[in-house]
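Practice problem: predict the structure.
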Amino acid sequence: MKISLFTIIAAWYLILIGNAEDKIDANWISKLDPNLKLNQIHIPGTHDSGTFAINLVAIKRFVETQNLDITEQLENGIRYLDITVSFEDIGDEIYISHNFIPCFTRKNHKLYLRDVLNDCMKFLMDHPYETIVTHISREDVDRDTITDYNFDC
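Answer:
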């Protein structure tokens, strides 16, 4: 039996993409084989995860890479978050940024790292068998500054 490449692609599309709304599962990791190691799992993630609400209209389309907030991403199965941070000029607050442009919440408040971590902790409390991998990088901080910072969530 000969199967065309188109048939294979169409079948995978229907399995993975077709009726995607029916396949969303906030608890997908808990359904995996418990003997799997983290490096044996294909983990869906987002780039610049905190860029769902950029309030600078002139550059929004160049900077905003997500349309779901952190909680929505997690509820839709995302388990890898790419977070870039910057420091406030005044004080020690760490905020989420993209190319030095601050990210905001849906309520138009600056999005802070503590907000993202709180969203992650709430999700994990609601879904105790799930895992979140987070990559946090800095844009404008000195290496000595970041190692001395206390995270109070």
